[in-house]
Amino acid sequence: MNLLEIFWDFWGICLEWCCLKSKGSLELKEATKWKDIDEGFTESLQKEWKNRGFDHKEAKEWIEGGFKPSDYDLVFYLKRKGCQPSDSYLEESVKEVSWKDIRPDFKCVHRRKWEESGINYEETKKWVELGFKPHDLYLVKEWKKRGFGYEEVKHFLAAGLDNYYFWDHWEKLKFTSHQVQEWLFIGMKQDEWNLANYLREKNCEWEEIKNNLTNFRKEYSEVDRKEEKMHVLSKISLEVISELKKFNHEDLTPEQELLVDELIIDEELRQRYYRYGLCSECYQPNTGKEVGINGWCQSCNSKHFQDEFKNWTSGNEDINKFIQKQLLETKSEYKIVEWIPYEKFSNVKHIADGGFGKVYKAQWNEGPIIGWDKDSKKWQRWDKEEVVLKSLNNSQNLTEEFLREVSNYKLVDGDSFYGSIVPCYGISQDPVTKDYLMVMQYIPEGDLRKYLSDNKVNFKDRLRQLYWIADGLSVIHRMGLVHRDFHSGNILNRKFNDDVVCFITDLGLSRPTNEKDKENVYGVLPYLAPEVLNRKPYTQASDIYSFGMIAYEVLTGLPPYYDREHNLDLALQICQGLRPQFQIRIPQLLKDWINRCWDADPLKRPKARELKKILDDCIDEISNEKHTEFYEQWKKMELLEDSGVLPSMKTVKTHPQAIYTSRLFNYQNLPEPQNSKEINEQIWASRDVNIDLDGIDSGDDQSEQISCVEAPLNN
Ligand SMILES: [Zn+2]
User: Fold this and answer.
1) What angle do CA 325, 326, 330 make, to 5 degrees?
2) Most buried of 177, 296, 406, 642 (most Cβ within 10 A)?
3) Is 24:49 a contact under the CB 8 Å cutoff?
4) Which residues of 501-521 are buried (b: 16+ CB within 10 A; e: fewer)?
């Protein structure tokens, strides 16, 4: 009997068992606790085992044979097949029956569904590797229906298109899959098929599109509005609504799913229903997610916002218009920009002076909107929220600058998983100075440099931090922006249980990729790419150079060039090819990509989403103890950390002229940036070497030794 037959037999027995149960012939007689077998033996699980004829002794044997209390059905099945708890092949058959080796949550019932759809073990494994979960079978089926296998879907996912429904729109406009991928790779979003079509018809040069995406976006939205092609939301009928109201969109049975597929013919509406459910007011599918219980309905909520326009004014016509437009167009709560009167804040405290204005901490007594309460006809709000009020000096006269920063935040907000960029809630005004204030979420653990020096952070958590930073940067870049002042002072940390999440802040200097600023160079010297020091345009690749510096700082504990003056001399050497040296061993793989970030040629640097992927893989290899080269290198690192050698800003002396706040530079006539091994050997070898790494295997080959040359820790 082959395993598939065993599997079908299993279903037969389960069915048989159901009949048995209904006859009541195996009633529960006693209720002794079986916790001594396994902590997880709840009373109801115990009942399930007993109902299948297992006593304490027998259950214990099976559990000791490697099964879990929740495996009663499987064990019942195996016992009926004549297996013994001690049979060595059991583990294999468990795998075969449930496909648990593909994913721990791949249950028998999932396997049956996938197989019934003609997808075998090998293929299922491939789809799961792409990130599909056992219950995502319907998505896989939809992709296959369109003629795509996992290889093609992999390309789509890498390009940023994660749903067949978006592909349908592109296809309708006669884009090939290859073309769609090309458009996405230059930064187009997966739902911008209309924009792509517009640009294609306009016959724009590819390079021009690539460099001017943000402007083209603006241009298209104007055209779109003028032609009154405003997207008319299609609707589902009343009969369908009355059917759907009986379901919970988050917990549909397979039968209900089939019915939904039949009922909602329009692809977009169906997708919205699956993702966000029905609006509790108009019963049409919601347009986005919100933190509260319900989804977000643009059509209903924009009306509620509009009704309130008469109740507030910022005192500035441009700001009023900006907020109103944002509120009318928001498809989810993440895009809300509210006017928040200053009296809504309490405990306002001055906490810092930023480069362009003051920073206050305050309590916002109501907190941000999470949805509309149709009973009380009021906005439902999150509880009290700690916020930061950021002023821009003289902002009543610099509305454009001020709104640009808010607009940058809103462009990226809600587009990352659950962090990565500090959320901005709205705008307020200081009643005394009349400066406008940006209302941001307060991120308690402070900036990255402070966090690294105040906390003992293990290597895996450091990788996690870098992952979040790469995630935030990839969102910023995907939206066509360049950060332009990217350093560890602009990255904030928040602890979530045992995890720490990083948020990028200070998008005040961020500009669309095409906007060139020929004036002055602004930033923190060690993080500025050589081409920027050399007065070439600031590009996304320049942000990547800065990311390399941040990664260096996170992984080694020390900011770059902390022990020397940040002056013209340093700028000169950076252009000549000077880069920080690793004072401690870090896995070669990480060293290699950091070196790529630092390449003098911006075109050779990796993309943010590539960095995110590398970091994700590294974390995965450590978490799942995959015995890769990287994992082995990391194991040695762990030793190092345990010995307490990893330095921090607290254990070293920094140079008084090492300045880590942003400032203006105006260096002239710096040499063309280049890579140079020589300058690194020359500069670093001339300095004392005194970090003692005894006890750590210092590497196996000569090149490793060179790249591990230690820099001085001043003492
Ligand atoms: Zn609605």
Assistant:
1) 120
2) 296
3) no
4) bbbbbbbbbbbbbbeeeeeeb
Scan for tokens 């059991």, then name that residue.
Answer: 90
* CB contact at 8 A, 457 and 465: yes
Tokens of 325: 């437009």
Per-residue confidence (pLDDT) for residue 340, from 0 to 100: 96
pTM of the predicted model as reported, rounded to 2 decimal places:
0.65
Question: Using one digit for the tens of pLDDT, what is the confidence trace for 29-61?
Answer: 344 578 888 878 888 888 888 888 888 888 888
Q: What residues pack around ion ligand 1 (CB closer than 5 A)?
A: 279, 281-282, 297, 300
Distance 303 CA to ligand 1 centre (A): 10
Topology annotation, domain 515-707: Transferase(Phosphotransferase); domain 1 (1.10.510)
**What distance in angstroms lies between residue 431's CA and the mean position of ligand 1's atoms?**
37
Question: CA dist 19 to 13, 48, 80, 104, 471, Å?
Answer: 10, 15, 16, 29, 52
**Ligand 1 centroid vs 702 CA: distance in angstroms?**
67
- What is the signed CA dihedral for 199, 200, 206, 207, rounded to 10 degrees? -10
pLDDT at 700 over 50: no
Distance CA(583)–CA(645), nearest Å, equals 10
**Ligand 1 centre and the CA of 297: distance in Å?**
5
Distance 269 CA to ligand 1 centre (A): 13
Write the class of the CATH domain 303-441.
alpha beta
541 vs 105, higher pLDDT: 541
Q: What ranges do the domains of the chain cover?
A: 3-98, 149-227, 238-286, 303-441, 515-707
